[in-house]
Specification:
- By secondary structure, this protein is an alpha+beta fold.
- The chain folds into four domains: about 110 residues, Immunoglobulin-like; about 140 residues, Sandwich (Immunoglobulin-like), CATH 2.60.40; about 110 residues, Immunoglobulins (Immunoglobulin-like), CATH 2.60.40.10; about 120 residues.
- About 25% of the residues lie in helices and about 35% in strands.
- The chain is built from eleven helices and 33 strands.
- Strands 11, 12, 13, 14, 15, 16, 17, 19 and 20 form a nine-stranded mixed beta sheet that branches. Strands 1, 3, 4, 5 and 6 form a five-stranded antiparallel beta sheet that branches. Strands 23, 25, 26, 27 and 28 form a five-stranded antiparallel beta sheet that branches.
- A hairpin with a 2-residue loop joins strand 5 and strand 6.
- Helix 9 packs antiparallel against helix 10.
- The longest helix is centred in the last third of the chain and has 29 residues.
- About 25% of the residues are buried.
Length: about 625
Protein backbone atom coordinates (compact mmCIF):
# COMPACT_ATOMS: atom_id res chain seq x y z
CA UNK A 1 0.00 0.00 0.00
CA UNK A 2 2.83 2.37 0.88
CA UNK A 3 4.58 1.55 -2.39
CA UNK A 4 1.40 2.38 -4.35
CA UNK A 5 1.16 5.74 -2.56
CA UNK A 6 4.81 6.44 -3.35
CA UNK A 7 4.26 5.69 -7.05
CA UNK A 8 1.23 8.02 -7.20
CA UNK A 9 3.15 10.85 -5.53
CA UNK A 10 6.03 10.35 -7.93
CA UNK A 11 3.74 10.51 -10.95
CA UNK A 12 2.10 13.70 -9.67
CA UNK A 13 5.50 15.25 -9.05
CA UNK A 14 6.65 14.44 -12.58
CA UNK A 15 3.41 15.74 -14.14
CA UNK A 16 3.63 19.04 -12.25
CA UNK A 17 7.36 19.54 -12.69
CA UNK A 18 7.09 21.71 -15.81
CA UNK A 19 4.52 23.93 -14.09
CA UNK A 20 6.45 24.22 -10.86
CA UNK A 21 9.46 25.58 -12.68
CA UNK A 22 9.57 28.49 -15.03
CA UNK A 23 6.04 28.07 -16.45
CA UNK A 24 7.01 27.37 -20.04
CA UNK A 25 5.17 29.49 -22.62
CA UNK A 26 3.29 27.76 -25.40
CA UNK A 27 1.72 29.67 -28.31
CA UNK A 28 -0.46 27.98 -30.91
CA UNK A 29 -3.20 28.71 -33.46
CA UNK A 30 -6.47 26.80 -33.46
CA UNK A 31 -9.51 26.74 -35.75
CA UNK A 32 -12.98 25.91 -34.55
CA UNK A 33 -13.29 23.53 -37.51
CA UNK A 34 -10.88 22.18 -40.11
CA UNK A 35 -13.68 21.87 -42.67
CA UNK A 36 -16.00 24.72 -43.59
CA UNK A 37 -18.51 25.49 -46.31
CA UNK A 38 -17.62 28.10 -48.90
CA UNK A 39 -18.41 31.66 -47.80
CA UNK A 40 -19.10 30.76 -44.17
CA UNK A 41 -17.47 32.25 -41.12
CA UNK A 42 -14.53 30.71 -39.28
CA UNK A 43 -13.10 31.59 -35.87
CA UNK A 44 -9.33 31.56 -35.37
CA UNK A 45 -7.99 31.41 -31.81
CA UNK A 46 -4.42 32.35 -30.86
CA UNK A 47 -3.80 30.53 -27.59
CA UNK A 48 -1.04 31.69 -25.22
CA UNK A 49 -0.31 29.30 -22.33
CA UNK A 50 1.73 30.29 -19.28
CA UNK A 51 2.00 34.07 -19.45
CA UNK A 52 0.03 36.95 -20.98
CA UNK A 53 1.20 38.36 -24.30
CA UNK A 54 2.91 41.74 -24.30
CA UNK A 55 0.55 42.95 -27.02
CA UNK A 56 -2.08 41.64 -29.41
CA UNK A 57 -0.83 39.01 -31.88
CA UNK A 58 0.72 40.42 -35.04
CA UNK A 59 -1.75 39.45 -37.79
CA UNK A 60 -0.23 41.75 -40.42
CA UNK A 61 1.22 38.72 -42.21
CA UNK A 62 -2.27 37.34 -42.92
CA UNK A 63 -3.05 39.01 -46.23
CA UNK A 64 -5.27 36.44 -47.93
CA UNK A 65 -8.01 36.67 -45.28
CA UNK A 66 -9.49 39.65 -43.46
CA UNK A 67 -9.29 38.86 -39.75
CA UNK A 68 -11.60 40.78 -37.41
CA UNK A 69 -10.92 40.78 -33.68
CA UNK A 70 -13.74 39.49 -31.47
CA UNK A 71 -12.66 41.60 -28.52
CA UNK A 72 -10.12 41.39 -25.68
CA UNK A 73 -8.61 38.00 -24.88
CA UNK A 74 -10.49 35.57 -22.68
CA UNK A 75 -8.59 34.21 -19.69
CA UNK A 76 -8.80 30.87 -17.90
CA UNK A 77 -6.65 29.55 -15.09
CA UNK A 78 -5.93 26.28 -13.31
CA UNK A 79 -4.39 25.84 -9.89
CA UNK A 80 -2.26 22.77 -9.09
CA UNK A 81 -1.16 21.82 -5.59
CA UNK A 82 1.40 19.13 -4.73
CA UNK A 83 2.95 18.02 -1.46
CA UNK A 84 6.50 16.67 -1.43
CA UNK A 85 8.27 15.73 1.80
CA UNK A 86 5.59 17.53 3.78
CA UNK A 87 5.98 20.76 1.82
CA UNK A 88 2.95 22.06 -0.09
CA UNK A 89 3.47 23.96 -3.31
CA UNK A 90 0.77 25.68 -5.38
CA UNK A 91 1.21 26.56 -9.05
CA UNK A 92 -1.25 28.69 -11.06
CA UNK A 93 -1.37 28.13 -14.81
CA UNK A 94 -3.11 30.73 -17.04
CA UNK A 95 -4.31 30.52 -20.63
CA UNK A 96 -5.14 33.51 -22.83
CA UNK A 97 -7.24 33.19 -26.03
CA UNK A 98 -7.25 35.89 -28.74
CA UNK A 99 -10.10 35.21 -31.18
CA UNK A 100 -10.54 36.45 -34.74
CA UNK A 101 -13.35 35.86 -37.24
CA UNK A 102 -12.99 35.62 -41.01
CA UNK A 103 -14.93 34.28 -43.98
CA UNK A 104 -13.90 31.21 -45.87
CA UNK A 105 -13.17 31.66 -49.59
CA UNK A 106 -16.00 31.12 -52.04
CA UNK A 107 -14.01 28.56 -54.03
CA UNK A 108 -13.54 24.99 -52.74
CA UNK A 109 -10.00 23.87 -51.93
CA UNK A 110 -7.38 23.62 -49.19
CA UNK A 111 -6.17 26.88 -47.70
CA UNK A 112 -3.43 27.78 -45.20
CA UNK A 113 -3.25 30.46 -42.52
CA UNK A 114 0.39 31.64 -42.28
CA UNK A 115 2.36 31.76 -38.99
CA UNK A 116 1.46 34.57 -36.58
CA UNK A 117 3.98 36.22 -34.25
CA UNK A 118 3.21 36.78 -30.57
CA UNK A 119 5.45 38.65 -28.11
CA UNK A 120 5.53 37.21 -24.56
CA UNK A 121 7.85 38.55 -21.84
CA UNK A 122 10.03 40.19 -24.47
CA UNK A 123 10.46 37.03 -26.55
CA UNK A 124 8.79 36.41 -29.91
CA UNK A 125 6.87 33.18 -30.45
CA UNK A 126 5.51 32.01 -33.80
CA UNK A 127 2.51 29.77 -34.38
CA UNK A 128 2.62 26.89 -36.83
CA UNK A 129 0.64 27.27 -40.09
CA UNK A 130 -2.97 26.08 -39.91
CA UNK A 131 -4.67 24.35 -42.82
CA UNK A 132 -8.39 24.06 -43.46
CA UNK A 133 -10.56 22.71 -46.26
CA UNK A 134 -13.36 24.58 -47.99
CA UNK A 135 -16.13 22.46 -49.46
CA UNK A 136 -18.95 23.44 -51.75
CA UNK A 137 -22.49 22.99 -50.37
CA UNK A 138 -25.16 21.53 -52.58
CA UNK A 139 -27.15 23.81 -54.86
CA UNK A 140 -30.76 23.72 -55.95
CA UNK A 141 -32.74 25.59 -58.57
CA UNK A 142 -35.61 25.83 -56.06
CA UNK A 143 -33.68 28.49 -54.13
CA UNK A 144 -32.61 31.58 -56.07
CA UNK A 145 -30.63 34.58 -54.83
CA UNK A 146 -30.62 37.89 -56.71
CA UNK A 147 -28.45 40.98 -56.26
CA UNK A 148 -29.56 44.49 -57.25
CA UNK A 149 -28.25 48.02 -56.68
CA UNK A 150 -30.10 51.32 -56.64
CA UNK A 151 -27.46 52.92 -58.89
CA UNK A 152 -25.36 51.05 -61.45
CA UNK A 153 -23.42 54.20 -62.46
CA UNK A 154 -22.25 55.67 -59.15
CA UNK A 155 -19.45 58.15 -58.71
CA UNK A 156 -16.28 57.09 -56.94
CA UNK A 157 -17.04 57.26 -53.21
CA UNK A 158 -20.82 57.52 -53.66
CA UNK A 159 -22.77 55.13 -51.39
CA UNK A 160 -24.71 52.43 -53.21
CA UNK A 161 -27.54 50.43 -51.67
CA UNK A 162 -27.40 46.73 -52.53
CA UNK A 163 -30.46 44.52 -52.10
CA UNK A 164 -30.29 40.74 -51.79
CA UNK A 165 -33.54 38.81 -52.37
CA UNK A 166 -33.67 35.11 -51.66
CA UNK A 167 -36.63 33.32 -53.25
CA UNK A 168 -37.74 30.15 -51.51
CA UNK A 169 -39.13 27.48 -53.82
CA UNK A 170 -38.94 24.82 -51.10
CA UNK A 171 -38.56 24.25 -47.38
CA UNK A 172 -35.42 25.86 -45.88
CA UNK A 173 -34.10 25.82 -42.33
CA UNK A 174 -31.58 27.68 -40.25
CA UNK A 175 -28.95 28.65 -39.68
CA UNK A 176 -29.38 30.99 -42.64
CA UNK A 177 -26.25 33.01 -43.39
CA UNK A 178 -26.09 35.75 -46.01
CA UNK A 179 -22.66 36.83 -47.22
CA UNK A 180 -21.56 39.77 -49.34
CA UNK A 181 -17.89 40.12 -50.21
CA UNK A 182 -17.62 42.94 -52.76
CA UNK A 183 -13.91 43.67 -52.18
CA UNK A 184 -12.84 41.74 -55.27
CA UNK A 185 -15.08 44.04 -57.32
CA UNK A 186 -13.54 47.22 -55.89
CA UNK A 187 -16.31 47.94 -53.37
CA UNK A 188 -16.29 48.25 -49.59
CA UNK A 189 -19.09 46.92 -47.40
CA UNK A 190 -19.93 49.94 -45.23
CA UNK A 191 -22.85 48.69 -43.17
CA UNK A 192 -25.83 46.39 -42.99
CA UNK A 193 -29.16 48.23 -43.23
CA UNK A 194 -31.02 47.38 -40.03
CA UNK A 195 -34.79 47.35 -40.65
CA UNK A 196 -37.13 48.96 -38.14
CA UNK A 197 -39.01 45.98 -36.72
CA UNK A 198 -42.13 46.01 -34.55
CA UNK A 199 -43.30 43.23 -32.28
CA UNK A 200 -46.43 42.89 -34.41
CA UNK A 201 -44.28 42.13 -37.46
CA UNK A 202 -42.40 39.48 -35.48
CA UNK A 203 -45.65 37.91 -34.28
CA UNK A 204 -47.12 37.93 -37.79
CA UNK A 205 -43.91 36.45 -39.27
CA UNK A 206 -43.27 39.39 -41.54
CA UNK A 207 -39.61 39.33 -40.47
CA UNK A 208 -37.17 36.54 -39.60
CA UNK A 209 -33.81 36.57 -37.82
CA UNK A 210 -30.83 35.67 -40.00
CA UNK A 211 -27.06 36.22 -40.13
CA UNK A 212 -25.63 38.73 -42.56
CA UNK A 213 -21.88 39.26 -42.87
CA UNK A 214 -21.37 37.58 -39.49
CA UNK A 215 -23.98 39.70 -37.68
CA UNK A 216 -27.46 38.77 -36.53
CA UNK A 217 -30.16 40.95 -38.00
CA UNK A 218 -33.71 40.80 -39.29
CA UNK A 219 -34.79 40.13 -42.87
CA UNK A 220 -38.21 40.97 -44.26
CA UNK A 221 -40.53 38.26 -45.59
CA UNK A 222 -43.02 38.88 -48.38
CA UNK A 223 -44.85 37.02 -51.11
CA UNK A 224 -43.54 38.11 -54.52
CA UNK A 225 -43.95 36.92 -58.08
CA UNK A 226 -40.69 35.64 -59.56
CA UNK A 227 -40.33 33.93 -62.95
CA UNK A 228 -44.03 33.17 -63.11
CA UNK A 229 -44.33 31.78 -59.58
CA UNK A 230 -45.45 33.33 -56.30
CA UNK A 231 -42.64 32.64 -53.82
CA UNK A 232 -41.58 33.75 -50.37
CA UNK A 233 -38.87 36.40 -50.70
CA UNK A 234 -36.35 37.03 -47.89
CA UNK A 235 -34.85 40.52 -48.33
CA UNK A 236 -31.76 42.11 -46.80
CA UNK A 237 -29.96 45.34 -47.69
CA UNK A 238 -26.44 46.74 -47.35
CA UNK A 239 -24.59 49.96 -48.17
CA UNK A 240 -21.52 49.64 -50.42
CA UNK A 241 -18.89 52.22 -51.29
CA UNK A 242 -17.02 52.08 -54.62
CA UNK A 243 -13.27 52.43 -54.14
CA UNK A 244 -12.09 52.03 -57.74
CA UNK A 245 -13.26 53.85 -60.87
CA UNK A 246 -14.10 51.95 -64.05
CA UNK A 247 -16.34 49.16 -65.31
CA UNK A 248 -16.64 46.10 -63.08
CA UNK A 249 -18.96 43.28 -62.14
CA UNK A 250 -20.31 43.32 -58.60
CA UNK A 251 -20.53 39.85 -57.08
CA UNK A 252 -19.67 37.93 -53.95
CA UNK A 253 -23.28 37.56 -52.74
CA UNK A 254 -24.39 34.20 -51.38
CA UNK A 255 -26.67 32.58 -48.82
CA UNK A 256 -26.15 29.22 -47.12
CA UNK A 257 -28.94 27.30 -45.45
CA UNK A 258 -30.21 23.86 -44.51
CA UNK A 259 -32.67 21.80 -46.52
CA UNK A 260 -34.49 18.93 -44.79
CA UNK A 261 -33.86 15.50 -46.23
CA UNK A 262 -37.44 14.54 -45.33
CA UNK A 263 -40.56 16.63 -44.93
CA UNK A 264 -41.15 17.81 -41.36
CA UNK A 265 -44.28 16.94 -39.47
CA UNK A 266 -47.35 19.14 -39.56
CA UNK A 267 -46.32 22.63 -38.66
CA UNK A 268 -47.89 24.41 -35.70
CA UNK A 269 -48.81 28.07 -35.71
CA UNK A 270 -45.92 28.95 -33.37
CA UNK A 271 -43.25 26.96 -35.22
CA UNK A 272 -40.45 28.79 -37.00
CA UNK A 273 -40.18 28.62 -40.78
CA UNK A 274 -36.69 27.22 -40.10
CA UNK A 275 -37.76 24.12 -38.10
CA UNK A 276 -34.92 21.82 -37.07
CA UNK A 277 -34.96 18.36 -38.73
CA UNK A 278 -32.32 16.18 -40.41
CA UNK A 279 -30.85 18.40 -43.10
CA UNK A 280 -28.17 18.96 -45.72
CA UNK A 281 -26.27 22.17 -46.30
CA UNK A 282 -27.08 24.17 -49.45
CA UNK A 283 -25.74 27.35 -51.00
CA UNK A 284 -27.26 29.88 -53.40
CA UNK A 285 -25.08 32.40 -55.24
CA UNK A 286 -26.25 35.62 -56.85
CA UNK A 287 -25.30 36.30 -60.44
CA UNK A 288 -22.81 39.22 -60.64
CA UNK A 289 -24.18 42.46 -62.09
CA UNK A 290 -22.34 45.04 -64.23
CA UNK A 291 -21.54 48.35 -62.57
CA UNK A 292 -19.67 51.37 -63.95
CA UNK A 293 -17.99 53.62 -61.36
CA UNK A 294 -17.48 57.18 -62.62
CA UNK A 295 -14.39 59.13 -61.47
CA UNK A 296 -14.73 62.46 -59.70
CA UNK A 297 -13.84 65.49 -61.84
CA UNK A 298 -10.65 67.38 -61.08
CA UNK A 299 -12.05 70.73 -62.21
CA UNK A 300 -13.45 72.80 -59.37
CA UNK A 301 -12.29 70.46 -56.61
CA UNK A 302 -11.92 72.48 -53.35
CA UNK A 303 -8.63 72.34 -51.49
CA UNK A 304 -10.37 71.07 -48.35
CA UNK A 305 -12.37 68.34 -50.14
CA UNK A 306 -12.25 65.23 -47.95
CA UNK A 307 -13.99 62.78 -50.26
CA UNK A 308 -17.65 63.24 -49.26
CA UNK A 309 -19.90 62.30 -52.15
CA UNK A 310 -23.69 62.66 -52.21
CA UNK A 311 -25.56 65.34 -50.29
CA UNK A 312 -24.46 66.98 -47.02
CA UNK A 313 -26.12 69.41 -44.63
CA UNK A 314 -24.69 70.99 -41.47
CA UNK A 315 -26.39 72.97 -38.68
CA UNK A 316 -25.09 74.32 -35.37
CA UNK A 317 -26.95 74.97 -32.12
CA UNK A 318 -26.06 76.30 -28.67
CA UNK A 319 -27.69 76.40 -25.26
CA UNK A 320 -27.72 78.74 -23.46
CA UNK A 321 -27.08 81.61 -25.83
CA UNK A 322 -26.94 84.11 -22.98
CA UNK A 323 -24.08 83.34 -20.59
CA UNK A 324 -21.20 84.84 -18.66
CA UNK A 325 -17.52 84.37 -19.40
CA UNK A 326 -16.54 80.88 -18.25
CA UNK A 327 -20.09 79.48 -18.11
CA UNK A 328 -20.57 76.15 -19.92
CA UNK A 329 -22.30 76.30 -23.30
CA UNK A 330 -23.62 73.09 -24.84
CA UNK A 331 -22.67 73.14 -28.52
CA UNK A 332 -24.16 70.69 -31.00
CA UNK A 333 -23.33 70.01 -34.64
CA UNK A 334 -26.08 68.27 -36.62
CA UNK A 335 -25.12 66.53 -39.87
CA UNK A 336 -27.54 65.28 -42.50
CA UNK A 337 -27.08 63.82 -45.95
CA UNK A 338 -26.72 60.63 -47.93
CA UNK A 339 -26.52 57.60 -45.63
CA UNK A 340 -24.68 56.05 -43.98
CA UNK A 341 -24.27 59.15 -41.84
CA UNK A 342 -21.45 57.73 -39.73
CA UNK A 343 -19.07 58.30 -42.66
CA UNK A 344 -19.65 62.08 -42.50
CA UNK A 345 -17.11 63.66 -40.17
CA UNK A 346 -17.79 67.06 -38.64
CA UNK A 347 -15.14 69.80 -38.81
CA UNK A 348 -12.71 69.58 -35.90
CA UNK A 349 -13.44 72.76 -33.94
CA UNK A 350 -10.56 72.05 -31.55
CA UNK A 351 -8.17 72.78 -34.44
CA UNK A 352 -10.08 75.80 -35.76
CA UNK A 353 -8.22 79.07 -34.87
CA UNK A 354 -11.53 80.94 -34.61
CA UNK A 355 -12.77 78.58 -31.92
CA UNK A 356 -9.38 78.41 -30.19
CA UNK A 357 -9.36 82.21 -29.81
CA UNK A 358 -12.96 82.66 -28.68
CA UNK A 359 -13.66 79.54 -26.61
CA UNK A 360 -12.17 77.14 -24.13
CA UNK A 361 -13.29 73.74 -25.43
CA UNK A 362 -13.71 70.85 -23.02
CA UNK A 363 -11.07 68.14 -23.28
CA UNK A 364 -13.75 65.49 -22.78
CA UNK A 365 -14.57 63.39 -25.83
CA UNK A 366 -17.70 64.73 -27.57
CA UNK A 367 -20.92 62.75 -27.40
CA UNK A 368 -21.64 61.32 -30.86
CA UNK A 369 -24.98 59.82 -31.88
CA UNK A 370 -25.91 58.45 -35.29
CA UNK A 371 -29.62 58.16 -36.05
CA UNK A 372 -31.55 57.43 -39.20
CA UNK A 373 -32.02 61.09 -40.07
CA UNK A 374 -29.03 62.86 -38.55
CA UNK A 375 -25.65 62.50 -36.87
CA UNK A 376 -25.11 64.74 -33.85
CA UNK A 377 -21.92 65.77 -32.08
CA UNK A 378 -22.40 67.42 -28.68
CA UNK A 379 -19.61 69.02 -26.67
CA UNK A 380 -19.14 71.68 -24.00
CA UNK A 381 -17.21 74.92 -24.38
CA UNK A 382 -16.86 78.24 -22.54
CA UNK A 383 -16.47 81.75 -23.90
CA UNK A 384 -13.15 83.42 -23.13
CA UNK A 385 -14.29 87.03 -23.39
CA UNK A 386 -17.42 89.20 -23.36
CA UNK A 387 -16.36 90.28 -26.86
CA UNK A 388 -17.52 86.91 -28.21
CA UNK A 389 -20.76 87.56 -30.10
CA UNK A 390 -21.32 84.33 -32.01
CA UNK A 391 -20.28 80.78 -32.72
CA UNK A 392 -18.66 80.88 -36.17
CA UNK A 393 -20.19 79.04 -39.11
CA UNK A 394 -18.73 75.68 -40.14
CA UNK A 395 -18.16 74.38 -43.66
CA UNK A 396 -18.05 70.96 -45.34
CA UNK A 397 -17.08 70.52 -48.98
CA UNK A 398 -18.68 67.67 -50.93
CA UNK A 399 -19.43 66.49 -54.46
CA UNK A 400 -23.12 66.82 -55.34
CA UNK A 401 -23.92 63.79 -57.51
CA UNK A 402 -27.23 65.25 -58.73
CA UNK A 403 -25.69 68.54 -59.84
CA UNK A 404 -22.43 66.93 -60.93
CA UNK A 405 -20.32 69.59 -59.22
CA UNK A 406 -18.50 70.39 -55.98
CA UNK A 407 -20.39 72.35 -53.36
CA UNK A 408 -19.90 73.59 -49.80
CA UNK A 409 -22.41 73.13 -46.99
CA UNK A 410 -22.35 75.98 -44.43
CA UNK A 411 -24.00 76.37 -41.08
CA UNK A 412 -25.42 79.66 -39.90
CA UNK A 413 -23.48 81.48 -37.14
CA UNK A 414 -25.12 81.08 -33.73
CA UNK A 415 -25.52 84.49 -32.01
CA UNK A 416 -24.37 84.70 -28.38
CA UNK A 417 -24.70 87.29 -25.63
CA UNK A 418 -21.69 86.94 -23.32
CA UNK A 419 -21.44 89.15 -20.25
CA UNK A 420 -18.35 89.77 -18.16
CA UNK A 421 -17.99 87.94 -14.88
CA UNK A 422 -18.75 90.51 -12.11
CA UNK A 423 -16.13 90.84 -9.35
CA UNK A 424 -17.54 90.56 -5.82
CA UNK A 425 -16.21 93.39 -3.57
CA UNK A 426 -16.12 93.82 0.21
CA UNK A 427 -18.99 96.30 -0.07
CA UNK A 428 -21.06 93.58 -1.82
CA UNK A 429 -20.34 91.20 1.05
CA UNK A 430 -21.35 93.86 3.65
CA UNK A 431 -24.44 94.83 1.70
CA UNK A 432 -23.40 98.54 1.81
CA UNK A 433 -23.44 100.65 -1.38
CA UNK A 434 -20.27 102.35 -2.48
CA UNK A 435 -21.63 105.74 -1.45
CA UNK A 436 -23.78 106.32 1.65
CA UNK A 437 -27.46 106.31 0.85
CA UNK A 438 -28.37 108.15 4.07
CA UNK A 439 -29.94 111.59 3.72
CA UNK A 440 -28.27 114.57 5.44
CA UNK A 441 -29.84 116.35 8.42
CA UNK A 442 -31.83 119.40 7.56
CA UNK A 443 -32.12 122.52 9.75
CA UNK A 444 -35.59 123.51 10.90
CA UNK A 445 -35.75 127.28 10.63
CA UNK A 446 -38.77 127.66 12.90
CA UNK A 447 -37.43 125.41 15.69
CA UNK A 448 -40.21 124.58 18.21
CA UNK A 449 -42.42 127.10 16.48
CA UNK A 450 -43.65 124.17 14.49
CA UNK A 451 -45.61 123.01 17.57
CA UNK A 452 -49.31 123.65 17.35
CA UNK A 453 -51.25 124.89 20.36
CA UNK A 454 -54.85 123.78 20.81
CA UNK A 455 -57.51 123.66 23.58
CA UNK A 456 -57.64 119.90 22.97
CA UNK A 457 -54.43 119.62 24.92
CA UNK A 458 -56.36 120.57 28.07
CA UNK A 459 -59.06 117.92 27.51
CA UNK A 460 -59.57 115.37 30.29
CA UNK A 461 -58.84 112.05 28.55
CA UNK A 462 -59.10 108.65 30.33
CA UNK A 463 -55.90 106.77 30.86
CA UNK A 464 -54.59 103.70 32.63
CA UNK A 465 -53.56 100.12 31.85
CA UNK A 466 -57.11 98.84 31.49
CA UNK A 467 -57.93 101.55 29.01
CA UNK A 468 -54.75 100.84 27.05
CA UNK A 469 -55.47 97.09 26.86
CA UNK A 470 -58.84 97.81 25.28
CA UNK A 471 -57.18 99.59 22.36
CA UNK A 472 -55.85 97.34 19.49
CA UNK A 473 -53.12 99.80 18.70
CA UNK A 474 -51.69 99.62 22.20
CA UNK A 475 -51.97 95.81 22.22
CA UNK A 476 -49.94 95.74 19.04
CA UNK A 477 -47.37 98.15 20.46
CA UNK A 478 -46.99 96.14 23.66
CA UNK A 479 -46.84 92.59 22.30
CA UNK A 480 -45.25 93.09 18.86
CA UNK A 481 -41.70 93.52 20.22
CA UNK A 482 -42.06 90.40 22.34
CA UNK A 483 -43.40 88.37 19.41
CA UNK A 484 -40.66 89.65 17.13
CA UNK A 485 -38.05 88.83 19.74
CA UNK A 486 -39.30 85.26 20.14
CA UNK A 487 -39.50 84.75 16.35
CA UNK A 488 -35.99 86.14 15.89
CA UNK A 489 -34.73 83.82 18.58
CA UNK A 490 -36.29 80.82 16.87
CA UNK A 491 -34.72 81.81 13.54
CA UNK A 492 -31.33 82.20 15.20
CA UNK A 493 -31.58 78.77 16.80
CA UNK A 494 -32.57 77.14 13.51
CA UNK A 495 -29.75 78.83 11.64
CA UNK A 496 -27.25 77.84 14.29
CA UNK A 497 -28.30 74.22 13.94
CA UNK A 498 -28.05 74.45 10.16
CA UNK A 499 -24.68 76.15 10.34
CA UNK A 500 -23.31 73.17 12.23
CA UNK A 501 -23.77 70.90 9.15
CA UNK A 502 -24.35 72.95 5.96
CA UNK A 503 -23.17 70.11 3.71
CA UNK A 504 -25.54 67.63 5.32
CA UNK A 505 -28.41 70.09 4.95
CA UNK A 506 -27.57 70.53 1.27
CA UNK A 507 -27.59 66.77 0.75
CA UNK A 508 -30.86 66.28 2.60
CA UNK A 509 -32.65 68.96 0.63
CA UNK A 510 -31.32 67.81 -2.77
CA UNK A 511 -34.06 65.32 -3.65
CA UNK A 512 -36.93 67.47 -2.40
CA UNK A 513 -35.73 70.54 -4.29
CA UNK A 514 -35.14 68.54 -7.48
CA UNK A 515 -38.63 67.02 -7.41
CA UNK A 516 -40.10 70.49 -6.92
CA UNK A 517 -38.10 71.79 -9.88
CA UNK A 518 -39.31 68.88 -12.03
CA UNK A 519 -42.90 69.61 -11.02
CA UNK A 520 -42.47 73.21 -12.13
CA UNK A 521 -40.89 72.01 -15.38
CA UNK A 522 -43.94 69.84 -16.10
CA UNK A 523 -46.05 73.00 -16.26
CA UNK A 524 -43.71 74.64 -18.76
CA UNK A 525 -44.06 74.46 -22.53
CA UNK A 526 -42.84 71.37 -24.31
CA UNK A 527 -40.02 73.39 -25.86
CA UNK A 528 -38.80 74.57 -22.45
CA UNK A 529 -38.94 71.23 -20.68
CA UNK A 530 -35.54 69.77 -21.78
CA UNK A 531 -33.64 72.78 -20.42
CA UNK A 532 -35.56 72.87 -17.13
CA UNK A 533 -35.40 69.10 -16.57
CA UNK A 534 -31.70 69.00 -17.41
CA UNK A 535 -31.06 71.85 -14.98
CA UNK A 536 -32.96 70.07 -12.21
CA UNK A 537 -31.04 66.81 -12.67
CA UNK A 538 -27.66 68.56 -12.76
CA UNK A 539 -28.55 70.62 -9.68
CA UNK A 540 -29.55 67.45 -7.81
CA UNK A 541 -26.25 65.72 -8.64
CA UNK A 542 -24.31 68.84 -7.65
CA UNK A 543 -26.12 69.13 -4.30
CA UNK A 544 -26.01 65.43 -3.52
CA UNK A 545 -22.30 65.11 -4.32
CA UNK A 546 -21.38 68.55 -2.91
CA UNK A 547 -20.13 69.78 -6.26
CA UNK A 548 -20.20 73.39 -7.49
CA UNK A 549 -23.80 74.31 -8.24
CA UNK A 550 -23.04 76.08 -11.51
CA UNK A 551 -21.16 74.99 -14.61
CA UNK A 552 -21.77 71.26 -14.11
CA UNK A 553 -21.45 69.48 -17.46
CA UNK A 554 -22.65 66.00 -18.36
CA UNK A 555 -19.09 64.67 -18.19
CA UNK A 556 -18.63 66.19 -14.71
CA UNK A 557 -21.90 64.60 -13.53
CA UNK A 558 -20.77 61.21 -14.82
CA UNK A 559 -17.33 61.57 -13.26
CA UNK A 560 -18.81 62.55 -9.90
CA UNK A 561 -21.11 59.51 -9.79
CA UNK A 562 -18.26 57.22 -10.81
CA UNK A 563 -16.05 58.54 -8.02
CA UNK A 564 -18.60 57.54 -5.37
CA UNK A 565 -19.14 54.11 -6.91
CA UNK A 566 -22.57 54.69 -8.52
CA UNK A 567 -23.29 53.50 -12.08
CA UNK A 568 -23.62 56.71 -14.14
CA UNK A 569 -24.96 55.13 -17.35
CA UNK A 570 -28.63 56.02 -16.78
CA UNK A 571 -27.79 59.63 -15.84
CA UNK A 572 -25.42 59.96 -18.80
CA UNK A 573 -28.04 58.63 -21.23
CA UNK A 574 -30.77 60.93 -19.93
CA UNK A 575 -28.60 64.05 -19.85
CA UNK A 576 -27.27 63.30 -23.34
CA UNK A 577 -30.81 62.89 -24.69
CA UNK A 578 -31.85 66.12 -22.99
CA UNK A 579 -28.86 67.93 -24.50
CA UNK A 580 -29.85 66.73 -27.96
CA UNK A 581 -33.55 67.39 -27.52
CA UNK A 582 -32.75 71.02 -26.75
CA UNK A 583 -31.80 71.41 -30.39
CA UNK A 584 -34.53 69.37 -32.07
CA UNK A 585 -36.28 71.71 -34.50
CA UNK A 586 -40.05 71.94 -34.41
CA UNK A 587 -41.70 70.36 -37.47
CA UNK A 588 -43.85 73.42 -38.14
CA UNK A 589 -41.04 75.93 -38.38
CA UNK A 590 -37.82 76.07 -40.40
CA UNK A 591 -34.67 74.96 -38.64
CA UNK A 592 -32.84 77.91 -37.07
CA UNK A 593 -30.08 78.16 -34.50
CA UNK A 594 -32.09 77.99 -31.30
CA UNK A 595 -32.16 76.79 -27.76
CA UNK A 596 -35.93 76.18 -27.72
CA UNK A 597 -36.39 72.61 -29.02
CA UNK A 598 -39.06 69.97 -28.83
CA UNK A 599 -38.85 67.34 -26.08
CA UNK A 600 -40.74 64.10 -25.65
CA UNK A 601 -43.64 63.96 -23.22
CA UNK A 602 -42.86 62.23 -19.99
CA UNK A 603 -39.22 63.29 -19.78
CA UNK A 604 -39.92 64.81 -16.36
CA UNK A 605 -41.22 61.48 -15.08
CA UNK A 606 -38.11 59.73 -16.35
CA UNK A 607 -35.92 62.30 -14.61
CA UNK A 608 -37.88 61.94 -11.36
CA UNK A 609 -37.47 58.16 -11.46
CA UNK A 610 -33.75 58.56 -12.18
CA UNK A 611 -32.94 60.93 -9.31
CA UNK A 612 -35.10 58.89 -6.91
CA UNK A 613 -33.11 55.77 -7.77
CA UNK A 614 -29.84 57.71 -7.57
CA UNK A 615 -30.83 59.02 -4.14
CA UNK A 616 -31.50 55.47 -2.95
CA UNK A 617 -28.09 54.30 -4.19
CA UNK A 618 -26.29 57.31 -2.76
CA UNK A 619 -27.89 56.78 0.64
CA UNK A 620 -26.49 53.27 0.53
CA UNK A 621 -23.05 54.69 -0.27
CA UNK A 622 -23.32 57.19 2.60
CA UNK A 623 -24.28 54.42 4.99
Amino acid sequence: MRSLRTIIMLLLTLSLAPLAGTQDVDVRAELASETVYAGEQLVLAIVVDGKPADDDPDISGVTEFELQSLGPPSTSSQTFTNIINGKMRTVKHETFRYQYAFFAPSEPGVYTLPPIDVSVAGDTYRTTPVRFRVIEPKQSTDFILTLDVDNDRPYLGEPVQATLRWYLGGQAQGPVRFALQPEASGFELLEIVEPVVTQAEVNQRQVVEIEFAGRKTYARLAQERFEGRVLTAVTVEAILLPRQAGATTLGGASVSFEVPTSQPRNRGMFDSIFDQVRTERYLSRARPIPVTVRPLPLEGRPADFSGLVGSVGIECFADPRQASVGDPITFMIRLTGTPPLRRIEAPDVTQDPRFQKAFRISEEEPSISVGRDAKTIVRTMRANSPKVTEIPSLELSYFDTKAGEYRTARSQPVPLEISATREVTAADAEGVPGESGLSALEDRQRGIAANVESPLALRDMPSGLGQRLRQPTWLLVMFLPLTAYLAAGAVVLVRREQAKDPEGRRKRRALKQALRALKRASRATEAQQPTLVSRAVRRYIADRLLLPEDSLTTAECVRGLQQVGVDPSAARDLLTKLDRSKFTPTPTTPTTPTSMPVSKRGVGASAAALITELDRELKGVDA
